Give the backbone structure.
Amino acid sequence: MQYPNALVAGSKIAVCAFSSGVDEAFHPRLSLALAHFKQLGFELVLDPNLKHNHQHVSASKEIRAQQLMQYLLDDSIDAIMPPWGGELAMELLPLLDFAQLQSAKPKWLIGFSDVSTLQVTLSTRLNWASMHTANLMQLVPNQSDSTTSAFYNAITLKKGDSFTQTASSHFEADYADVINSPDAAYNLTQKTCWKTLNWPSEGVSGRLIGGCLDTLIFTLDSPYCDLQDFCQHYEKEGVILYIENAELSPTAWLRALLMLKYKGHFERINALFVGRHAASAANKQIDFAMALTQAELNIPIIYDMDIGHQPPNLTLINGALCEVSPELNLKQTLI
């Protein structure tokens, strides 16, 4: 696994809206986040289309792909941070020149949601580590909970380093109003409780890979999300797959799990991490936990984790070796 350089004061970060741009109502929040990263000492390069958003995207797929390629090939840039996710990052995948990228310096791709569409591609196809964590628009000065703050330590790590995370104390079920209160932190009102199925007394370990199942389900088994090849490449350590759900209903979630099962992917992994579900299960005949049980997955599972659209988010590094203790402490090592 190729790990990008640690980020230090003076590192250059490209803020690239390769999926959704930022609507005008959110510009004050964006300004706060950008000012925060400048205050931390980073040099920012801003996508010309960052503040544009029309029909879920910042620009045409051709323009977005060209801008992203420019940043990926620019070896003065150390990391790429979209403002947030979106809907249509997958449009860019066939427009990226992976032959050129093979010789580029690895760069951190940081965020979650639709960002993970490209993170998984870079990690499975180019063997670049990537960082699934809070999005730029969530990283404002007032957001100081310990789970989110772990991001600032993770970006300073170099190959060979390790860090450990545990469950948050509380999570956000109802989003804070960042339009009327641009500096608002998460509304952390709900108690966090990670749960397990088939959990072994000795814990588990494996290389991390994963992201938002809403989008990855459409790229899985394509050249842009070859999970089978990734598992074969890291057969010695094994793989831990993590997934989160933004909008899938309980039955759509169950169908997605069954698809993964029928294609043999659960037979190839050591464990499954599942984030909290942002989608509603109201007025449904089954809930998400029931669907997970109904899928009859005979692998170790932790669910309702700090992953996804009900923050805070763990910082999970695609490609890192993750060792999970019996007490559910997560130690990631950049090897």
Summary: The first strand starts at residue 12 and ends at 15.
